[in-house]
Amino acid sequence: MAAPRAKSTVIRLALAALVSLFLAAPALAGEGWTVNLKADPYGPQRFLAVDKSSQTFWIFEQKSPLQPVKQLPCTTGQEPGTKWREGDLKTPEGVYFIKERIGGGLDFGLYGDLAFTLNYPNPIDIINGRKGSGIWIHGRGRPITPNESKGCVALNNPDIKDLDPQLTKRILPVVIANEVHWSKDNPTATKEGQEVVAATLEWAKAWSRKSEDFFAFHDAAKFSVSTGEPFDTFRSHKRQLFAKLPWIHVLIDDVRAVQGPDYWVTYFGQLYRSPTLSSEGIKRLYWQRNEQGRMVIVGMDYDEISLGLEGKYLSRVRDDVAKVVEAWRKAWEGGKVAEYMQFYDENAVQGDRKGKAAIREQKQQLWAGSKAPRKVALRDMKFSLAQDGVQVEFVQEYASKDGNSDKGRKKLVLGPVGNGWSILDEDWSKM
User: Rounded CA gap, 364 and 372, in Å?
Assistant: First the structure.
C-alpha cells in the first residue's frame, strides 16, 4: 500500500563485491516488464525479485548456478502495469534500492510493524515522467490477499520480520517486474554489464584527474531532467572546483551493475577527498545508450554513509607515500640539498621555517662541512588521513658528521601532487 514519506532515521544501502546482474529486455508495451535472470560471473551473490503476476517475493543467490533460496507470498498494486502517477494503484517496475528502515510509529493494520522505503521515483522514472512516491516493502497486520495494495509490496508480517536482518544489511537490489523467470545455465558475462562497469571506473578516473573528459560521460539533456538542474550549472560548478582545488581523489569500491527495463544502474561505495571536503557514501549511476550507441549517464543519486572506505583508501596510497618518505630520507642522509628539496611543496612549513626557499637556505648552511648528515634512521612508521592528504608519524634518529645526534618523533603531512606526493608540513619533537 502506498505510504507517506518516512520520518525515521535513514538507513543507507551497503555494498559488497564487484558484480553485475543481467536482466532481459522488457516485453511488449502494455504487457509489463518480463525479466529473465541468469547466473553471471559479475552477478551479485544475493538480490530480491518481485513477480507481480504470481504475487511472489523471491530471494535469489548465485550458488553455481543462480537459484531461489526463499519464496514468499506478497501482494502488489490493485491495477496491472507499471506506476505512472500518484494514486493509480500500480506498483512500479524496474530496479530499486532500499532507502530507510521504519521500525515504529506505523499503522499496524496497514503496514504491520516494519517497513522499508524504496527510491521510487528513481532518475529513470523522473525522465519518463512517472509521478508518485511512498513505495515501500512492508508488513501487514492481517494475512495478505493478492493485488490489494495501493502500489507497495506487502508481505505477511512474520515474513518481513524474518527478513529484517537481511534487508537491514542494505546489500540487496530490488527487481520488480510483471514476470520473473530465471535460468540455471552456466554463468555467462554480459557485454553491456561489462561496458557500464568499465565506464564507471573510467568516469571516476576522469573525475580524479579533473579532466574535461568527465563531462563526456553524461547525457546533458536527460541528466538535467533527472537532477532538476541545468547541465551547464553542474558543469560550471565542477569546473570551478577543478580550477580551485589542487587535488581530488575519488575512490570507488565494489562496483555493481544491474539492468532495468531500458537502462542500467551501476552502484558502488564512493570516497571523495579534497583539501576542503571528505565525503563517503553510496553512489548510483543510471546509464542509457545514446544515439551514437554509447552508454552515458542520464541520472545519479548519492546516500552519504560511513562504509569504512577511508581505511581502504589509506591502504591503497600508503605504499606510494612510504616510498616517497624513504626517498626523502635517503636524500637527507646523503646531504643532497637539491634532491632533498624536490620532496617539498613551495609553501611547505618545517618547524619555524615557512616556504621552500627558507627550508633550502637553512639546509645549505647547516649541511656545510662537518655538520652534514651522517645517519637518518626511521622506525615505527604510522599512517593516518589528514585534511590535506596523509600524515606519517615515526621515530627519527639523526646524526651529523661532527658527532652531534638526536632522537625524536617526526610528523610529516604529505599532499597529492600529480601522480606523486609532496611534503606540506613537517614537525619534530625531542624524545
Answer: 9
